[in-house]
Each structure stands twice: as structure tokens, then as C-alpha cells.
Write a structure and sequence with these properties.
- The chain has one domain: ABC transporter involved in vitamin B12 uptake, BtuC.
- The chain is 71% helix and 3% strand.
- The chain contains 14 helices and two strands.
- It starts with 5 loop residues before the first strand and ends with a helix.
Length: 343
Amino acid sequence: MSGGAWVWRHRGWSLRLQPRRLALHLLCLALLLTTAALALMLGDTRLGPAALWQGLMGTSGPQVFLVQELRLPRMVAGALVGAALGASGLLLQTLARNRLASPDLLGISDGATLAMGVSLLWSAEGLLGPWWQALIGALLTVLLVLVAAGGSGRQGYRVLVVGLGLASLLRALFDLVMATLPVMHSSVVYSFSVGSLLARGYEVAAPVGAALAVLVLLLAPLARGLGLLGLGDEMARSLGLRPEPLRLAVLLLAAAMAGLGVSVAGPVGFVAIAAPILTRSLFGGLGLPLSAAMALGASLVLAADTLGRSLLAPVELPAGVITGMLGGPFLLWVLLRQTEQED
């Protein structure tokens, strides 16, 4: 053991493991598994542990249909949404060094939602377009923010301010699209625009999950450099790091992850803010806890969706409505806590 960490060395490689960090990751994983189980058990029809096991392992019957055909695909889709938003929020907050940085405030979520809404303008069936349109919308939005802000900047404050302005413009454009759509079309996009997992399953979760895995792999070699940015640009350059290309790469990856989340369920608000803040409160300065942020983000979305299906069953409240109701007080608590710490 070295410095409170377990270190294994063998020939030319070594493995360093911090017990506290491992315990916290296991805690986040346990929370995710718990919320996933509750998502499968609760709803207008409630299942006990035995019925849930039968529904998962069985091959026929009403419980099998309820779990395997209805709730499990939706649960997987919700977990992917939360994981993508949690990862995106953590990257943006780390990059901007600001706990309020998120794809919601930067307009990324609004750009992705607008792209999906625009697809209805040329859709005769009144159906949302393919999931990758939200990804393109998110990337185009972040590029517009960078052009308007004149680059990412050292602290990222200029990007945040420009992002807030662009987000307002994109929301206004989305309202314009809604006003020009036929009623039957606008009802479809409105349900999507408030953040809903209704009728979402493997057909969209499979490609989005694969794309998210690719983005995480692309991020892996950048993680160490992202941590070094906290030392300042001059120190980072002295260590052989190029801050500007790194910021751009991380910002594009964060935007892409947010676009993936929006492509499945629409803009589920406050998850991208809350998950990284909760993660940082647990881990402190222990590196970049990406997997923990993804697990907590997935837990938040699954909990919100389960509450939405259970509170007024059989009436269903979209997950985005639940997170919006809880996210406002959470954001106020964060601001008040930050003010107290500064005083």
C-alpha cells in the first residue's frame, strides 16, 4: 500500500487502486441497481421480488410480457439517457470549472430538441426523425457557441454566457416550429420536448448505447489531460499538454453525449447538473469519476420515470416533468450553499 492506495506492480506495468474511490463506485453501482429494480417493479401494476424474478427469467405469461416487453426496454433506455447526461454534465463542469455548467444552460439540449422537432416539418407520418438528428443538432449548437464566443476561453465563462443567449434563441425557434406544425404532429413533439420515455425501447437504445460506448472510449485518453487543466494553462503546457485542442475535443464529446441523451427521451432537465454535483460531493478531488457520474445520472432518470409512472397511475407524468419539479429546489439549494461558503 502506498499513500492510502493499493499498488500492484508486475514487470513493466502497475495498477493503482484507492479503496475509498472503489467503495464509492460500488455505492453508486448499488444505487443504480436498486433504482433499476424499482423501475421494473413499480407502476400501475406492482410486482413483488418473486414476481419480478419470474418475469425476468420466465418465457411466457403476463408478468413476462410486462417485464421483458414493456418495462425492461424502457428501463434500459432511461439508464442510457441518465448515463449520457451525467457524463456530459461532468465534462462541462470540469471544463468550465463551474458547477452550473450543463448542456441545458449551454443550449446543447435545446439544439438537439430543435433538430428533432424540425424533422417533423417534412414528415408526412408525424413521426420523429432518426435519433442521430439530435446528435447533429447538439454538435451544431456547440460549434455556434464556440464561434460566437470566439473560442472556449480559459475559464469558460464566455462560453456559458453565449450559451445562455443561444439557448433562449433555440427555445424560441422551437416554439415557432411547434406553432407551424399540425395539431397531431405538435402533440408528438411536445411529449418529446418535456422529456418522456414513453414507448422508448431497444430500437433506439441499442444504437445510442453503442454510440455512447464509443464516445467514452474516445474520452479515455483525454481524461488525464482534462485533470491537468485544473493546474492552469501555463503549468499544463509545461507538462506537454495543449489546452486549446483538448478543450475543443472534450466540449465536442460532451455535446455529443448530451445529444445522445436527448435523442432517446428529449431534454430531461437538471440531471446533467445534479449528477455531477452529487458525484463531486462524494468524490471530492479524487480524479474524474466519470463512471460514478453516469451511474448517478442513470439512477436519477430511472427514479424520475418510476415516480412519474407511479404517483398518479394510470396517468403518467413524463420523467422531465418530475426532474423539473425537483431540479428547481435542488438548484436553489446549490446556489444558497455556494453563497454560504463564499461568505
